Amino acid sequence: MLRHQLTLAFRSFMKFKKIFAINLFGLAIGLTTVVLILLWVKDELSIGRYHEKIDRIYAVMTNHDNSGGIVTIGITPGDMAEAMKAELSQVELSAGTSPYIEGVAFEQGDTKMSGAGLFVDQSYFDIFSVDFVEGNPGQIMTGINSLAISESMATKLFGSPKEAIGKSVKWQVYDFQNEVEVTGVFKDLGSMDVDKQDYFLAFSYFKQMLGDGVHWDNYNASTYVLLRPDTDVEAFNEQISGFIKAKEAGSNVSAFVQPYGDTYLYGTYEDGKVAGGRISYVKLFSVIALFILIIACINFMNLTTARSMSRVKEIGVKKSMGASRGGLFSQFMVESLVLTFLALMLAVVLVYILQPFFNQVTSKALSLALEPELILILLAIGIVTGFLAGIYPAAYLSKFKPVDVMKSSVKGSFGELLARKGLVVFQFAISLMLIIGISVIGKQMAFIQNQNLGYNQSQLLQINASGVHPNQLDSFLAELKNSPGVEDASSLSHPLVGLRSSTIGLTWEGKNPDEQVKFENITVNMGLVETMGMELVDGRAFSPDFGEENSKIILNEAAVRTIGFENPVGQIVNLWGEDKEVIGVLKDFNFESLKENVKPAFLKYDPGFAEKIMVRIGAQNQQETIAGIDGLFVKQTAQPMDYSFMDEDYQSLYASEQRVSKLAKYFGVMAIFLSCLGLVGLAAFTAEKRKKEIGVRKVMGASTFGILRLVSKDFVRLVLISIAIAVPLAWYFADNWLKTYAYQTHLSWWIFAGSGILLVIIAVITVGAQAYKAASENPVNSLKSE
Q1: Residue 725 is assigned to a structural domain of this protein
Q2: Are 337 and 11 in contact (CB under 8 A)?
Q3: Which of 120, 589, 765, 772 could form a disulfide with 124 if both were Cys (CB 3.0 to 4.6 A apart)?
């Protein structure tokens, strides 16, 4: 029976080759898009979740109840891990780590290189799954002078991982340096990790570096815990809420834990609670995949029913010969499933072809590995798609009565016509929402790129100064300034983009002692304000012309407003117990994403901690200028220069939005293309039903344009209904998305009007082609007896 139905299916495909090709291609395009989104979603959901004990690993977060509201960060006091393990029975293991530190210089013999990584406890390796190829994982951080390095780093420094074990390496960051022993070599971290560590150093040395900075009112470390299997996490969070307050009188900080596997996707907080993050994009594209799959299925329904008139006599004959409705239904469902699985196989081929391009757009390394789990998922998608696409045409075609067929009195009901038109409205409403969404994202990204950040980011290089000893930094900066093409150079302590170094240690006369205010702390060298092109609204910058500058401080406008100074220059503030004179006020500059308002910040002078070099270069001969700077850097450090352009770093803050924008463009085009196929189907169906009417009108003198208008007007009406539905929904979602930015563009009327007009033009062209074909046909062919 199945073989017979398969034979009938392939005969039907060959009989209606054009419809078969359109259906196959439409479903294949839809399934290709769905599979690509599936790969992306699967990868996003997998990041950071490969650890063996992932269900019990938690990151400790802290809520800081400041004057401007609650700020949530994943940073804790340095002693947090040790105290939690000692005092909380639910904690099986705990690990303290440093923040992710880039630019650490490593030296072994004549070989020098820089790396990024963490200072960690030994228990870190008992909590997280780090795959060691050399060394004993249980004895990696045996002492303060232990070092674990990646395979690639071991190969660069020693020639091979095996040769690295037991060897000595010197490292340096800022003015801290030490000689350590390689105790382990781990496999290079892959795409499932957010940060790619090149090294692990001892957390005990990190605390030694901090010195007096290790106390319960200073937040400079990350803490991870492995909770016991029977732990009630909600009750545990209530228990640790006041953990820090019990250690530090007057603290405004409460603690809680978040599943480590959620930290990548759920990184946005409001009022101290998780409010989303990258998960919103995962949900968005999952919904887009579902909509595109539904649109592809709708196309199949419309194109199949559009040719139903060509099969009614076949159905009538079969029913007269004894075929049941159930038998015919199963025949048409088999046709749908066979076509769907042919489309799925074509989609797999297209995914393999498009993979490199898709990886480039998403900045991932996705691959379609046909493993059992993925094969089952693809089969499930194929079966579901086949049933969704085929169930309506099968029910529609199998219901015809043989008597009506033979009398040529088969007519579609109003409900069927309404359903088909409703499906087209749905398709185009989704397409219009995508067009508007793409336009709004593009407008906001353009607004961000043209926003005045408070400093000049063009032609500004940021150099990682690992290997430059603090005592040699000033002389190196002097060499840079004399280099051809260099306009200015200075340094600061942290990358300015995405700066995260805050303190509550700034006080002033009249400050409410119960109020804790966070200020961004930026340590700078002489000339940083001038190099960055920052604007002073009052006072002056740091300068050697005024002698000792360590007791001076520069505030931004937000800091002045927060403190309440009317004439800030000359006022005295206290930073960590030392009085500082305010010598200048900077116009507010953005050091975070434009999703955030400018926070209070200050600049203090300390060249020993200002090792992130900023170089302003000229617009001409930039490659020659960079090559000259690189030569000076190699001469100074014996390692290649690691640099980036400031405007590129700034754009990296919006990498997720940029990728979403690109993906939305491609998926929007797919949705519009598939929707047009659906419109072709409905137009073909209408032309088929009105074939004799069109013939009579042409015989009676109707023009081709008149026929075009007759056939097209109903479809333009459908598109206008789609616009009426989609515009308010798109406005609502776009407005809510823009509200996530402190600095936002406005929703222009022309985005909605232009998108609607574009959709109408696309629909008119699509339907017009089908209508012209019907209007151009010889009326004799449509009026002659069959």
Answers
A1: yes
A2: no
A3: 120
